[in-house]
Amino acid sequence: MKWFPFKNNPRLLILAASFFFTGMSVCVKAVSPKIPIYEVVFFRTSVSFLILAGLLWSRGIPFRARNVPILMTRSLSGLLAMSCNFYALGRLTLGDCAILGSTFPIFVAILSFLFLDERPTKTLFFWISIAVIGIGLILRPQMNFFNYVGLIALLASFFSAIVVVAIHQSSETDPSLRIAFYFMGVCTFIAIPIMLQHYVAPTPRETLWLISSGLFGTAGQIVMTHAYGLEDVSRLSPLSYFGVVLSFLAGMILWREIPTSWSIVGSLVVMVCCIQIARLERAEPVAL
Q1: Any idea what the Cα angle at residue 65 is, between residues 64 and 69, rounded to 5°?
Q2: How many Å apart are CA 239 and CA 172, to the nearest integer?
């Protein structure tokens, strides 16, 4: 983190990470009409894979994983989350996709008391119930109440929640850089054969967008990881929704995506509920 200013200020770092992740989403959305999903996945993850490999080598961190089953669970779940998210980015407004993709604390809470023997509380059930209402408000105006693309965006959040649980279980045996390295490596090598079946040669401009998605995503991941290492997740989680605001603004400026009143109200409800759930569960962040 020597390359980044304000490296010891977690609040500024999390705002910067939100900016980087929004930049990644903008890059993906810019190419999504023409470039197949797994070609986008390949560029996004291969750039990160090379950068993270260099970081592991420069810091003398062994490449060999200790908890391979959990790392594979994290990697495959992350690949599914990324695939669903990139699919939704090409079909939903940038803002709606961002807010639906940030609902993973809800699923983390559900998975925690289903598989980690954590006891749910009435307060947690209350915030989850209100969040579901907010999600319904976002989905309602899009496709006559049943918005299958919105449901795919929610599916991305579900797989992201599995990622969070897997990271929680593997963090005691493998450092965060190694976990991210294996995730990007698995995604890259799985994406290659799928990409080759439907390969579309990108233009120079599209190639720049694709490479930039990897650079923005990697920068966001590194900065966010450092920020959460300096400050408790529950205190920084409200600031992470700065990225949702940026996404709505970017969508309006670049694609003239004017949010409906339903989306605005639903987004505010979801953000408040997810912040409260994250504070209750102290959910770890996840990055695509």
Answers
A1: 145
A2: 27
Q: What is the pTM of this model?
A: 0.92
Nearest of 87, 3, 78 to residue 38 by alpha carbon: 87
Q: Where are the domains of the chain?
A: 10-281
Per run of 10 residues, the mean pLDDT along the chain (length 288 residues) is 68 92 97 95 97 95 91 94 96 94 90 73 91 89 63 94 83 86 96 96 97 96 81 77 96 94 93 88 60
pLDDT recorded at residue 170: 77
